[in-house]
Amino acid sequence: MEYIKVTKENLEQEHICCAISINKDVQVQSKKEWLYNRFDDGLVFLKSVERGKCFIEYIPAENAWNPIDADNYMYIDCLWVSGSLKGHGYSTDLLDECIRDSKAKGKSGLCILSSAKKKPFLADPKYLMHKGFFVCDEADNGIQLWFLPFSNDAIVPQIKACAKHPHIDEKGYVLFYTYQCPFNARYVPILEEVAKKQSVPFKAVLLSSKSEAQNAPTPITTYAFFQDGEYLTNEQMNDKRFLKILGK
Q: Can you give the pTM of this predicted structure?
C-alpha cells in the first residue's frame, strides 16, 4: 500500500477518507477547513492512496482538541481502517509510521482515547493492548486515556480535572461537538430541527477553539451528548436515533 501525507498544498485535491465526497459537500468543507487550520500546530494526516477509510490523524498533545495533560506526547485523533481495506495490516503501517515520526520529533510517546469495551468512533482497546498501549487514566463515563511510552521514565498522561467527571449543570439535551468530525456538519442541524419539531430543549455547543476544547466537560470533544446534565454518548446520531431516544 502507498500512503499520502495531506498538507496545505494538496488538501484540496485529496479525499479525506472519513467523508469521501466532492469538495462542495458541507461535510468535506468543514473537515478540510478544520484540518487546514491545524497543520501549523503540527497535525499530520496520513492516508492510503486508495479511496476508502484508511488513515491516521495525529497532533502534538499540547495542541490536541481534548482536555488532557500529556506533555511532549503525540496524540492520535483517529486511526481508522475499515471496509475492504481492513485486515491487510494497513493500520499497523499507519501506526508504525506515527511511532517513527513521533520518535524522530523527540516525543515521549503516544496517547489516544478509548474505552474498556469497544465504542463507536473510538479505537479498539484490544488492538491498542496488542500494540503495547496501557490505560493511564479514566473518566467517570468510561472513556479511557491510553498511552504508549517510548521510555520507562516518560511521564504518564492524564485527563484534565474538568473532564474526569463528565457532568453539566443544564437540563435538556446538550451536544458538544467540533468540526474535527465531518459528519457533524450534516447531522447536527438535523438534530436541531428534530428537537424544534418535537418541542424538546436542545442546545448544540460548537467548540470552535483549542482552548474551548481543552476545557470541555468530557474527554471526547468531537461529539459528546448530554441529557439533563448526564453524559449520554459519543456516537453521532441521525434523526431516527434521536427520535428513539426521545421515545417517539
A: 0.94
